[in-house]
UniProtKB/TrEMBL annotation:
Keywords: Signal. Residues 132-226 form the AB hydrolase-1 domain. It comes from the Eukaryota. Residues 1-18 form the signal peptide. This is AB hydrolase-1 domain-containing protein. Transmembrane segments: none annotated. It holds the Pfam family Abhydrolase_1.
Length: 397
């Protein structure tokens, strides 16, 4: 069965137009925000998962999801389906003032509970915005709101926002970056900004992810190894402690009754502030982060469609024989959700090579000390960003 919910009129009228939103000057570059209509078709499924329409059902879903005998996988599928549609994806392209590495673009995919602002803190950006740090290091960078959150479309939380469709959206964005369409969108978006009028196609693409965005990034490089020139996997390593603390850790409520209420509808849940702290903040409470950072991290949180959790299994453990590029795993030392609070010793470059990316040109595991899951929102964030830029430079990127 094909679930088609393309907004046909919008599709016809917007084949290559972009909605004006915002253009901004940064200390080391320029950024422009715009919407991209992305046509995508992908396998999907009707999963046997509870409905969530109020706070009690939200907590009940979290308990269900964390229950040890709950099936996460094909065994939980009632019916296999296909989803096709044109989805509005909100994106921000930033280009550096220096031309040094301008032709290398990073495509950054955020995790659950956030949108693209995860990469681009408004709070003390010189210390906490990965976007600004990338511009300073000379890279172009594309950030986008994944389907279901931020200013992108918020389709059905059970049937539509699922992992394979999100993987396909990342593939389409990547193809658009390689073939120049992405830069055409950026140029055409209003207001006009000269910094975007004369961009040449990028020569190289580095994919970077955080958390669920790293599930997507690692599956992407495994399945489409010839569509990437390098990858940075942050806040994720596939091993026994992954998600062991369970979804109750998020302390969710129903997003439709939260303040302000979210328009996604049934099946979208949102973390309370203590859930944001549980998952995203870690390390020595006196030195790792400040109350203001936690406050900011809570203020930019986003709801999560529960179909994403039911379908996430498809992204795990994909083997990438076609990946022939460098990959860095950057783990926060005190990541509670991924490593149950201690990532030391859980990732090994040789083992990753043996099991997952045998033809990678380089595999590095780096640990960012005294830091929780939300790497940019800790005191030592810029030193962590530098670990990535140094790795890229060592590998010709
Ligand atoms: C759905 O597809 C998967 C993999 O293709 C298969 O293993 C599973 O049995 C199918 N489930 C149903 C209910 O058809
Ligand atoms: C570029 O790639 C996108 C995404 O696959 C596609 O829709 C578009 O037609 C391509 N454009 C050109 C000029 O090849
Ligand atoms: C546009 O880019 C081309 C090629 O990179 C360059 O030669 C030209 O000077 C640029 N034009 C402007 C107006 O920047
Ligand atoms: C990547 O590989 C696929 C299948 O192996 C092929 O169809 C495609 O043309 C390749 N793309 C590039 C950019 O090399
Ligand atoms: C990886 O494979 C090599 C060659 O088979 C083997 O010598 C090594 O012990 C393996 N390392 C790990 C960590 O699995
Ligand atoms: C900050 O991070 C860098 C890079 O990981 C590390 O070398 C340094 O020790 C850290 N500083 C503190 C105070 O944790």
């Amino acid at each position: 069965m094909a679930i088609v919910f393309a907004a046909a009129v919008w599709l016809l009228s917007s084949s290559i137009t972009a909605t004006p939103i915002q253009s901004s000057q940064r200390p080391n570059g320029n950024c422009k925000q715009f919407d991209i209509p992305i046509f995508a078709t992908a396998p999907s499924a009707t999963y046997d998962i509870p409905r969530v329409n109020n706070d009690i059902e939200a907590t009940a879903w979290a308990i269900y999801d964390a229950t040890r005998s709950t099936v996460h996988g094909v065994g939980n599928i009632i019916k296999n389906t296909t989803t096709s549609g044109t989805f509005k994806i909100h994106a921000q392209l930033c280009v550096p003032k220096s031309s040094q590495k301008k032709d290398i673009i990073q495509i950054a995919t955020h995790g659950v509970h956030y949108d693209s602002r995860y990469w681009d803190s408004d709070f003390q950006p010189a210390e906490h915005s990965y976007v600004d740090a990338s511009l300073k290091a000379g890279y172009s960078i594309l950030t986008y709101d994944r389907l279901g959150v931020g200013q992108s479309d918020h389709p059905d939380a059970y049937e539509v926002v699922q992992a394979p469709l999100e993987l396909e959206i990342l593939r389409q964005l990547t193809l658009m970056a390689y073939n120049g369409t992405l830069y055409t969108f950026a140029k055409q978006a209003r207001p006009n900004d000269a910094a975007f009028n004369n961009l040449t196609k990028p020569e190289k693409i580095v994919h970077i992810g955080h958390s669920f965005g790293s599930f997507l990034t690692s599956a992407f490089i495994a399945n489409y190894g010839n569509l990437t020139d390098g990858a940075i996997i942050t806040g994720y390593i596939y091993q026994q402690f992954l998600a062991q603390t369970g979804s109750t850790t998020f302390s969710v409520e129903y997003a439709g009754t939260s303040n302000p209420p979210y328009k996604g509808g049934s099946g979208y849940v949102v973390a309370r502030k203590n859930g944001i702290q549980n998952v995203f903040f870690g390390g020595d409470i006196k030195t790792a982060y400040t109350p203001a950072m936690l406050e900011y991290g809570n203020s930019i949180k986003q709801p999560v469609p529960i179909g994403e959790f039911a379908s996430a299994f498809s992204l795990l453990g994909n083997v990438g024989l076609s990946f022939k590029a460098p990959v860095q795993y950057l783990l926060p030392e005190n990541d509670f959700y991924i490593c149950r609070g201690d990532c030391n010793g859980l990732a090994d470059a040789d083992e990753i090579r043996n099991t997952t990316y045998p033809h990678a040109t380089a595999i590095e595991v780096a640990i960012q000390p005294n830091t929780g899951h939300a790497l940019p929102l800790h005191n030592n964030a810029t030193a962590g960003f530098q670990l990535t830029f140094d790795f890229l430079a060592r590998n010709g990127l």
